[in-house]
């Protein structure tokens, strides 16, 4: 949830008290005509922008003021008495218009509604308006729908406060709230603001706030409205990243360590999961390619998944299945390990030898287990026989055999050493003493 702040353009409590008096002393001029077409494309790609337009000269007897007006509400956001240029313009939709008078403009100030602008003669002339869209590349929310909260200045006691959310794609009211919070906001560009009216706010969702406020100001003398500055809010849809595994394809391979590679959304995080709890985490390149080379596989069918994730936490999964086949002409055979002697052995002190037979391939190492064969610990030895000392009861020994390049390792059948206290030798040799007379 986002928390943003908006402010009213100066005190407004006195507006309601003086409204009737001003109604009889101030003549409202014709209002400018906003563009008939809402600007859709970005005139300025980043915000804030320095808006620069071209204007034509006017007669020396006429004074021109250039106004930048928020198209959502009709609120004046910038005034330039010299040229049609406006600096530090935030993201939003606007129109620029020139006001011409032979006297002095009234209410042509930031924060006023453009419909309030007049002069002493009531003869303000307006130029043709020009629509402008200033875009933003910054996402205020990266998932949709979302919610956000903003803070507005304290309204006068006599005013009704209504919070309005404008969809800038249509320039219509998207949501109305009695609190400065909007929820369920879909992806898009929005402007939020507070509207202060002396009576009920009667515009509905889908209506034009600009037209509503203009109607109040011009036609409902003594019941004018004040609108806060607008807050731009960009909700970006979370587009799932793409992911594909291109190698190995759904076929066979003789490699037990084939590179797993593919394509994904550039710079997406890629996690590859393989059998046995193996995992490889990498990042797709700027060109969208990725590769994992740390995974190993046994002979048989294998399934691998690759998960691509973006910074918004949205992920996409791809899966491939391939088969590892042996390239070995004569596969490894583990054979049988046997104890050379009689079991059980003494349980306190023992020693012995085990030997391998019936194997195809060379011994690459020996292994032993003391938990019934659940886990094995490597023993460095490539001989076909192994000597041991002080074996525990039910301790197992096995050999690991390989028959050359392309062949998978094969484990021998293990031998289990048993021990017993009954098989411990008792030393009965006692040196006799001597009896003398």
TrEMBL record:
Keyword tags: Signal
InterPro entries reported for this sequence: Ig-like_fold
Extent of the signal sequence: 1-29
Record Gene3D superfamilies: Immunoglobulins
Protein name: Ig-like domain-containing protein
